[in-house]
Amino acid sequence: QRLRAAVHYTAGCLCQDVAEDKGVQFSKQTIAAISEITFRQCENFARDLEMFARHAKRSTVTSEDVKLLARRSNSLLKYITQKSEELTSSNMEQKEKKEKKKKKSSVAKGRRTSEEQEAPVTESEDSNMA
C-alpha cells in the first residue's frame, strides 16, 4: 500500500513537472490512471524478471535479465546496457583498489611481525650483556 502511494506521489510530481514545461493540465483522474498503469507495469516487470532468473536456474535477478526485459525498446536497452557497462567498470576499479589495499596491509603486517620478532631478540641481548 505504501509502495502504491509512493508511485502515485511520484507520478503526480512528474505530471506537475510536465504541466509546467508544456503548459498543460492533468486531472486527478488522469494522474491516478497513470500511477495505476505504472504500478501494474512494474508488477509485470517484477514477475518477468523473476521468471527469467528462475528459467536460468538462479535465485538472483541479474543485469542480463533486465536487458532481456528491455529488449523491445531499443533506446531503453541501449541506456541499460550503457549503465551496466559503467557499473561493471566501476566495480572492477573498486576491486582493484581493494586488492591493492590488501597487498599493502599484508606487506605492512609482515613488516610489523618481523619488527616485533626482532624487538625481543634485542631485549634478550641487552639483558645478557648486563
UniProtKB/TrEMBL annotation:
InterPro entries attached to this UniProt entry: CENP-S/Mhf1, Histone-fold
Name by which UniProt lists this protein: Centromere protein S
GO molecular function, one term: protein heterodimerization activity
Skewed-composition ranges (Basic residues): 98-111
Region: Disordered, residue numbers: 82-130
Alphabetic keyword roster: Cell cycle, Cell division, Centromere, Chromosome, DNA damage, DNA repair, DNA-binding, Kinetochore, Mitosis, Nucleus
Source superkingdom: Eukaryota
Family: Belongs to the TAF9 family. CENP-S/MHF1 subfamily.
Record GO biological process: cell division; DNA repair; replication fork processing; resolution of meiotic recombination intermediates
Membrane-spanning segments: none
Gene name, Swiss-Prot/TrEMBL: Cenps
